Amino acid sequence: MIHKKASISTVQRKLAIAKYFYYFIISVVIILLIGCTNYKDMEEQVAFKKLYAKYNVEYYENDNNDEHLTMIVITGEPSLTEFPEEMRAFKKLQEIRFINCNVTEIPEFITEFPELKALWLEGNPIKKIPSFITKCRKLNILDLSNTEVSQFPEGFGNLPITSLYIEGSKIQGFPTELYQFDSLTHLYLNPINELPSDIGNFKKLIHLKVALKSFKYLDTIKSIELLILSNSTGTHLPEGLGNLPLLRGLKMKYCKSLFKLPSSLGSLKVLSKLDLTGCTRLTGLPSSLNQIPIGTLKLSECNNLQSVPKGLQVGSIWAENVTWKSMPVGIFDSEASDLNVINHQITDITGIGRMKNLENLNMTNGKIKRIPPDINKCTKLNLLLLEGNEIENTYNAEISENVDTRLLGNPVFDRKQIDE
């Protein structure tokens, strides 16, 4: 009998343990069910409020009916390490911009957005583009700048890509997948030696950014409107560059080996922006440049520049951080309305009166000692900024009372002297 009771007690104990374990499992399941949210069925406004409470949503956009979220932008949010599940509620999402966050991967649920057209992921530690991205049938803009991505997935060329940004990623060279994008308009690449000889076959390419060792074949891209060639090491641009009828902007920042610009630049009838910042080998600009109207000419850090063509049809001239001790020949003979030479070593600006269209003159932080009398010929002058110079006297200059004159930091020169 004693043995039988012991056996019964053991069975009861096991049943009790099983019972408690059963209830524990049920409790865990209930808790998980309560905590699990079906974001796909959630109203968009509710999902957005949850998302907005978690992250610094910089910008968002709704459709014309104000019913569906179509665009969401989150920038500089280190706590954003993955695509928020709340996004699954946005049925008509067309554009996602998660820039400079800590997102590590692209989730498969982006295939749930049939209208997705643009995915901007610059500055995120993403290492791989998953193959399911090819299911985003309308995706035409992909930004992988400054990510860890090193290659494209199989089938990537089947997407309708028109804009691709891979500078700063680990995708090197000129990827062969690009040849499958007949409608490519924007392309930002990592540095390469030179463009492929058939680059002109991209008939719709309007924006190109790449650092080159050779500028060969640039002049074959007839559709191009903006060339960003900053930090290139090429020595000279092709003479045929002037044959690009649509080129509006040419940026050559810190092309320190560039010593010459082609004379054909004067044929670029729609060129509006020319940025030569940091082109330290340039000593002059081609004379043909005075044949075309240029909106903005940037000459910052062009310390060896000695002259520009007389009669430049330019709106604004910018030159910051230059070691010029005198103004390069020809600048005072331009038609510029704005002249900005900041942080310089110029001591004398005699000749400024030849700038008949000058409205704004900013020559702060230099060594100018006097204002020459011919400045009174600048009858359109509205703003004169000369802070940080060594003004000693007006040199009998007459300046209109309508001119906003700021000469702070000049110990013996003030507005009263101008009036007198």
Short description:
By secondary structure, this protein is of the alpha/beta class.
Overall description:
The model is unreliable at about 1-5, about 30-35 and about 410-420 (pLDDT under 50). The protein is about 10% helix and about 15% strand. It is built from three helices and 17 strands. It is an alpha/beta fold and about 425 residues long. It has a 17-stranded mixed β-sheet, with helices on one face. It is elongated. It has a domain at about 35-190: Leucine-rich repeat, LRR (right-handed beta-alpha superhelix).
What is the averaged pLDDT score?
Answer: 88
CATH architecture of the domain at 36-190, please?
Alpha-Beta Horseshoe
Low-confidence stretches: 1-6, 28-36, 408-420
The percentage helix is: 10-25%
Element-by-element helix/strand order: HHEEEEEEEEEEEEEEEEEH
Q: Tell me the name of the CATH homologous superfamily of the domain at 36-190.
A: Ribonuclease Inhibitor
* Count of DSSP-assigned helices: 3
Biggest β-sheet description: 17 strands, mixed
Percentage beta strand: 15-25%
| CA-atom Rg in angstroms | 32 Å
Choose one word for the global shape.
Answer: elongated
CATH secondary-structure class of the domain at 36-190: Alpha Beta
